[in-house]
């Protein structure tokens, strides 16, 4: 099933509004929405070591399908490489592949990374592992926690 881009854009705009307080509190820099690519980025800086992480959030066919989440290396601009990803003590969320291994991330499904060929893209919110990560705000909060809190964060997945 395909979602009309205008619906995806309107949904994302509404969900991004709910992120305004978090963005201010944590210093997130959320880009403008790229309506052609149906994407935006979020810059998150770790207060632990000042490492900058740029999350790419592609939302075509959202909310029917989960967004495609990936990290962009802030130095080279390369996407999806180990240098772009944080290393966390929660190895079930940031895999070493590198992906965000969760139903909220399209990249973790079969046909993308192949890690979870057993998960269905459609109906992703009904996946038992999705839990509360069903909105932009919830996803960003979960990623942020793994970058700003010492209980999770362990630097960059691969040093330059």
The main sheet orders its strands as: 1-2-3-4
- Mean pLDDT over all positions: 91
Radius of gyration: 15 Å
N-to-C SSE string, H for helix and E for strand: HHEEEEEEEHE
Task: Please estimate the helix content.
Answer: 10-25%
Query: How far from one another are the termini?
Result: 41 Å
Q: Give the name of the CATH architecture.
A: Roll
Helix segment tally: 3
Stated plainly, the CATH topology is called Ubiquitin Conjugating Enzyme
- Name of the level-1 CATH class: Alpha Beta
**Unreliable stretches covering 5 or more consecutive residues:** none
Category from helices, strands and their pairing: alpha+beta
Count every beta strand, where a strand is a DSSP E run of 2 or more residues. 8
**In percent terms, what proportion of residues is strand?**
15-25%
> Into how many domains do the coordinates divide?
1
Largest sheet: 4 strands, antiparallel
| Gross geometry | globular
Q: What is the assembly state of the chains in this entry?
A: single chain
